[in-house]
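$ run holo --ligand "arginine" --emit tokens
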Amino acid sequence: MKKLLALVFCFVLVFALSGCASYRTYEQIAADGKLVVATNATFPPYEFIDDDGNYSGIDIEIIEAVGEYLGLEVEIQNIEFDAILTAVPSGKADVGIAGMTVDETRLKSVDFSDTYATGKQVIITSADSGIAGVDDLAGKKVGVQTGTTGDIYASDDEAIGSVEQYNSGIEAVLALSQGKIDAVIIDNEPAKAYIASYDSLIIIDEEYTYEEYAICIAKGNDTLTAKINEALSALKADGTLQAIIDKYISAD
Ligand code: ARG
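-- output --
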């Protein structure tokens, strides 16, 4: 009886432990034929929902091209940005692509592919705010998208009066246009897209930080990471990657 109990206990333990690392390996994904991709489609031109209701943007096209290279269908899961960093390690999604910056803290919970694009954080403010750079944010109310690097930098900056978190960058920009906050810190390209419909808003011409975007993958899912990198370097070499970026971002 004791032996039986011990055996049952062992099974329970094994299930519990495997539950912790339940990501799918490349072999399992290949057998299924489908790559499950988490994103947060509020971030033009990287990922957004277009007028026809389809997922669109640089990241969407890149991951579609990666899928095609690997012979995999791509299934997009549109979730909150900060949820991507738990969906991927827990195996709810195989990878995450979301204009996500490679960052030391994130590297503790996920692995990253090679970099496929670069970005920078900028400040959006109203033309008449008098804010001309980071130093002018002292004591101000700054809006960010929850869990983004903009959120991390703003929260680390003790001079900033308060950091207001929003589910998306566009909600932060809306609050800014309504005078509820003084500025928004967000990635440069989405910033341009967000302010397009607001005449009163400007982007401060000061580089806050330089960042590298990469695809996140569950820690230790090494064959998948290698396959994604193989696809990325093939797409880099044949010009596909640059063509996708050029389609959405005009050189200026
Ligand atoms: N680059 C920033 C970060 O990694 C913002 C990314 C936000 N992405 C999105 N799809 N909403 O934190």
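-- notes --
The longest helix spans residues 2-20.
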